[in-house]
Automatic annotation (TrEMBL):
This is Response regulator transcription factor. GO terms for cellular component: cytosol; protein-DNA complex. SUPFAM superfamilies: CheY-like (SSF52172). Keywords: Cytoplasm, DNA-binding, Phosphoprotein, Transcription, Transcription regulation, Two-component regulatory system. PROSITE patterns: OMPR_PHOB (PS51755), RESPONSE_REGULATORY (PS50110).
Amino acid sequence: MRVLVVEDDAGIAQGLAAHLAGLGYAVDTTDSVAGGWAALGAEAFDIVLLDLGLADGDGMTLLERLRQSPPGRQPDPDTPVLIMTARDEVAARIAGLDLGADDYLAKPFDPDELAARMRALRRRAAGRAQPKLLCGELEIDPAARTVLRAGQPVELSGREFSVLLTLVEARPHVLTRAQIEAKLYNFDAALESNAIEVHVHRLRRKLGEQVVRTVRGVGYYVPAEPGA
């Protein structure tokens, strides 16, 4: 999951980024409305964590501008937004939700609750209610970051799990290497040119050759139906 944290408190932003990175998310941070808008225009994010009191204005401005963006281009107006702020008055929560926020969390909050709310928003955006994903003989638990194959646990590295989850959530669409990288790595990450190929090779060795398919010269996909 690619996450944008828009937060002007450096300590909070860094703490959130570290916690979410530990959960396998790619996290970018900015402290301003302008920085948030630039990031949203440059990259597709799965979720935005938005503070309201920012260095150059009110986060509501960024939210409103995002929701008014033309569809079918970046910034994507349908990007899920979770407001996290010390403004916990009912009127402030109502205003944020009415402007298009998907959820609202008052500071201080538990990072694990935040992560659970993020997973719920991700499920909602994908149009599913079940917390686990079933793919043939695979059962994938995004919360626990575990995989069962025919009921037996399979040990995956954090990056291997993220690649698998990204492809399963996108099935049956083909994702290019660049699209997969964009989901897994933030702007500052340095990665080897064959990193995705290595992860896919290891997934096939652990889960079976037919789980992740290749479209030569294009990218990778997981079929909608097992064995298809």
